[in-house]
Each structure stands twice: as C-alpha cells, then as structure tokens.
C-alpha cells in the first residue's frame, strides 16, 4: 500500500508523439512555382523503400498538370502500420523536380529520368541526404488510383489513435474504471489496520488505518516512520468490487489501483496488486488488512 504514498511525490506525464513524416521538415523560404510541369511525371505513381530491417515506407503520389500533388504514405514498422497524407506543389526545371509539401516544407531538387521499363528513377544530391528520409536513389512506377483506400485507412488510423490516446489518458486519471460498474461487498466495510517495514522503501515503516464505508467511500490514514521522524498523511477515495477484483480510486492522484484479494479470516484480508496505476510493472506488492472495528 506504500505506493499510494509515493503519489504525493511523483508527476506522471502523458506524451503523445505523432506524424513520422513531419519529423523530416526542412525550414526554408517559400518555393517559387514555375509553369513547367513535365508530362512524364503527371499522374498516379507508386514508390516504396525499406528504411531499416523493421521499417518499410510505401507511397502513392498523384501529380496534377496544374502543379498540385497529393501524397499518401503507408509506414509499416514490424506489426504496426501507420498512414498519413500530404499535399503540396511541384514543378520541373533542368531535369530536376522541385517540390514543396505541407508536412515537409521545401524539398531539395531531385534529378529524375525515365528508364526503358517505364519507371522514373530519382537521384538525390548526396550532400543533402541527411535532410531527407528517402534513400539516395529510388524508383516510382505508374499505378492505379487508390486514394479512397488510403483515406479510409487514415480515418480508421486517426480514430484508433484517438481511442488509444484517450484510453491512456483515462487510465492515468482513473476514469478507465468506473465505480458504477462495481458493488460494495459488506465484508470490506469497517475500520482496518495494517503495517509494513522495508516493503517498498528500505528504512521506512508504514502503518495505516483504512476506513471503508458502505457507500463506497474510504479514508486512508497513514503514519510513516523515517529515521525517527513521524509523518502523517491522509487519502480519500472510492472503492468497489468487480469480477472478484478490488478497485481503489484515489482522489488526490485521480488514479485507480486494482488488487486481487483473499479472506484469510473474517477479520483478515490479503491483497495482492493486479494493476497499479503509478507503477504498472509492479506485480509483486501485497499487504494484509486486519479489521479492528
């Protein structure tokens, strides 16, 4: 139960990192667009390359005759697949393609050449490779329009990402588990006491009095002994039972911990952590409550 005390000294932050593509942005002045657009490059083109053994990037690029373009990306990293869309402008001059996109900004000119297979070979300047996620040389081939496929995947990916983000946020804030889904087992109601030494932090002795009320509220009164110094700490929250698990929501941290439990007698309960919000990898912590009233 000591981990509850640690909440008062820990700050949990949720960071959400999105857009693999946007990390490749180049800060440059706005691109000056010309009227030259090589007809060879107009239409739907597909490309792919393996960035690492674990990451493969595929794309569909739709270059329009008016100089606009839409790019769809599919990034496969082991078992995960990510989708993204980018838009921008393009033009050609002196055997090079010049591009600017919403996500990447202004890109360095890239030389291109149509080979005898109907493929377009793009070759980048080695001196600027560090500013691009693409390899030195890559190929695009003509393809059919799969824009709707990508749009559907992007929508589903964004919904899934939002759901995962909200779930993580809810778990951190205790809302993932609702007291309304559980019940108050009368066996847990009353005043319970316990104590432990060196259980989680060496040199610290903790004693507690837990008062569980039949309305699902609790008051937890801690006494902590450290190097001869006594500290008091009180926590309040909600408790409930669901599917043979004990749930404990703490108001100060807004987090919920889950325990399995075993009645050693009608006045002794052994709790073992099942899911600890502040330390999800801790699967060994356990303690005993003894009923005093």
The CATH topology annotation of the largest domain reads as Lipocalin
Shape: elongated
Total of helices: 2
Oligomer: single chain
Order of helices and strands: HEEEEEEEEHEEEEEEEE
Number of domains: 2
CATH C-level of the largest domain: Mainly Beta
Description:
The protein is mostly beta strands and 293 residues long. The chain folds into two domains: 24-159, Lipocalin (Beta Barrel); 183-291, Lipocalin (Beta Barrel), CATH 2.40.128.490. It has two helices and 16 strands. An eight-stranded antiparallel β-barrel has the order 1-2-3-4-5-6-7-8. The longest helix has 26 residues, at 147-172.
Topology overview:
Layout: H1 3-6, E1 43-50, E2 55-63, E3 68-77, E4 80-93, E5 96-101, E6 105-114, E7 120-123, E8 137-142, H2 147-172, E9 190-197, E10 204-212, E11 217-226, E12 229-242, E13 245-250, E14 255-265, E15 268-275, E16 286-291
Antiparallel strand pairs: 1-2, 1-8, 2-3, 3-4, 4-5, 5-6, 6-7, 7-8, 9-10, 9-16, 10-11, 11-12, 12-13, 13-14, 14-15, 15-16
């Amino acid at each position: 139960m000591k981990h509850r005390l640690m909440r008062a000294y820990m700050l949990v932050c949720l960071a959400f990192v999105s857009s693999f593509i946007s990390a490749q942005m180049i800060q440059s002045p706005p691109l000056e667009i010309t009227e030259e657009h090589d007809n060879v490059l107009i239409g739907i083109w597909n490309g792919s390359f393996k960035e690492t053994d674990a990451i493969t990037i595929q794309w569909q690029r739709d270059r329009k005759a008016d100089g606009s373009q839409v790019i769809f990306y599919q990034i496969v990293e082991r078992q995960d697949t990510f989708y993204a869309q980018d838009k921008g402008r393009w033009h050609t001059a002196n055997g090079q393609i010049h591009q600017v996109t919403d996500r990447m900004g202004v890109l360095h000119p890239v030389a291109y050449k149509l080979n005898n297979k109907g493929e377009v070979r793009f070759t980048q300047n080695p001196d600027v490779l560090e500013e691009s996620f693409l390899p030195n040389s890559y190929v695009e081939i003509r393809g059919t329009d799969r824009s709707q496929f990508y749009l559907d995947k992007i929508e589903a990916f964004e919904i899934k990402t939002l759901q995962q983000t909200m779930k993580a946020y809810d778990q951190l804030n205790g809302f993932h588990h609702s007291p309304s889904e559980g019940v108050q087992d009368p066996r847990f109601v009353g005043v319970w006491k316990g104590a432990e030494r060196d259980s989680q932090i060496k040199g610290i002795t903790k004693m507690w009095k837990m008062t569980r009320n039949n309305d699902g509220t609790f008051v937890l009164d801690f006494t902590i002994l450290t190097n001869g110094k006594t500290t008091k700490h009180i926590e309040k929250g909600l408790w409930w039972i669901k599917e043979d698990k004990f749930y404990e929501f703490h108001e100060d941290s807004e987090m919920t911990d889950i325990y399995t439990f075993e009645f050693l007698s009608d006045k002794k309960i052994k709790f073992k952590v099942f899911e600890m919000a502040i330390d999800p990898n801790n699967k060994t912590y356990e303690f005993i409550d003894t009923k005093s009233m």
